[in-house]
Design brief:
By secondary structure, the protein is of the alpha+beta class. It is built from two helices and five strands.
Length: 89
């Protein structure tokens, strides 16, 4: 799953899907954590796990550790989780 993350926001929230200029679709997230020593990445993991009702260990950052655009892997993605993600878009 591709994400566009805005750190240092007022609160943790998922803004929905965004279509980029190249046609790719990303899920926009805002986290209150600062982008320092992995705090924002941990907040992204926590927000996704809470929203999907899964353990934090099921969400793995694949790429974009220091970038706004990130790719995460969600282990054992069920049909119910896919529906929750689709509802966010």
């Amino acid at each position: 799953m591709s994400l566009r993350v805005t750190p240092n926001a007022g609160r943790d929230t998922i803004d929905g899907a965004e279509t980029r200029d190249d046609g790719s679709i990303v899920l926009r997230l805002r986290v209150a954590a600062v982008p320092d020593k992995g705090k924002a990445n941990a907040a992204v993991t926590a927000l996704l796990s809470k929203t999907l009702g899964i353990p934090k260990s099921s969400v793995t950052l694949i790429s974009g550790e220091t970038a706004r655009f990130k790719t995460v892997l969600i282990a054992d993605l069920s049909d119910a989780m896919v529906e929750r993600l689709a509802a966010l878009a």
